[in-house]
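To the team - biotinyl-5-AMP complex, inputs and output below.
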Amino acid sequence: MVNKNRDIVSMLDDRFPLSGETLGKKLGISRVAVWKRIKKLQEEGYPVISGRAGYLLDGTAPLPLESFFPEEFPYPVRFTPRVSSTMDQARLEEERSPKLFIAGSQETGRGRRGRRWESPEGGLYASLLLFPETDFESAIVPVMALSVALTELLREEYRLPAAVSWPNDIMIGGGKAGGVLTELHGRYDILDRQILGIGVNVLGNPGVPEAVSLSTARGGEATSRPVSPAPLAASLFTRFHRIVTDLEREEIVSRWKSCSGTVGRMVRVERSRGGELAGRAVALGDDGSLVIRTAGGRTEAVRDGECRLAREEM
Ligand code: BT5
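Output:
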């Protein structure tokens, strides 16, 4: 799905130019065909310099976001430096095929229930548009898969102690590093369009007291990966795609449960349909609910709400 001309980029060097003839021989195409493909790459933002001695890569310029995604990545990637919200881009998309929208920053990034998501440059802001052909009840599965993908990625590749705070926060230590959100569109019981949104604080500080960014959380520790939005986006959505295609629903749910940082803690949940419930979080349900045991010994599952750690847990 991603740019087929990228094989040329991997052959180029930032010091020694390669002639069109040499490139053509390597690729089994004519010099004119090489020139056309280079022109296309330049138009798409690849920093290829054409000179008299041949083609060079400008090693100081950033590569376009797309170049971080593997060749076999299944969704087209649309990068926009600044947008209102990637959720709106996905919602307004007319073409009926899956697509990944990524922005460098957002003017009116949003969280759940009309809340704001601070989206300065340096973060990852993405919405994946899907046409799942399932029922509304199953829509929770890709949401879980995206939380799992981010949490496991941060744990395994960035060596950060990430966990999912129910229902949708990705926490590192006591700080919120990211959040997941979904919007569903459909009629009757058929889900037509699902938009998965994710925001991650990668570099810098979004200016929210409870927030933490990956670069701050990592401190001076070396990781196997650079902390920057583009490679993070590529690894995240590649993992996500592997999870949803390779795993059965039960396995995704079980991985999601293993990522939880809420079970075992004392919590206070404000239910979406009103009322508050306080007690110990004792389990997660397969439907994404949180099971709470109250001081009176009653056990109750909450499907939707806002969860805070109770004071003694902070
Ligand atoms: C979320 O909402 O955590 C889901 C956020 C999803 C954002 C992505 S970015 C790409 C896509 N396009 C969008 O417009 N949105 C999605 P919620 O659980 O409602 O959390 C919102 C709350 O988190 C706010 O009320 C603040 O308290 C806090 N907050 C806002 N910006 C933050 C940030 N950058 N980092 C950490 N916390 C933040």
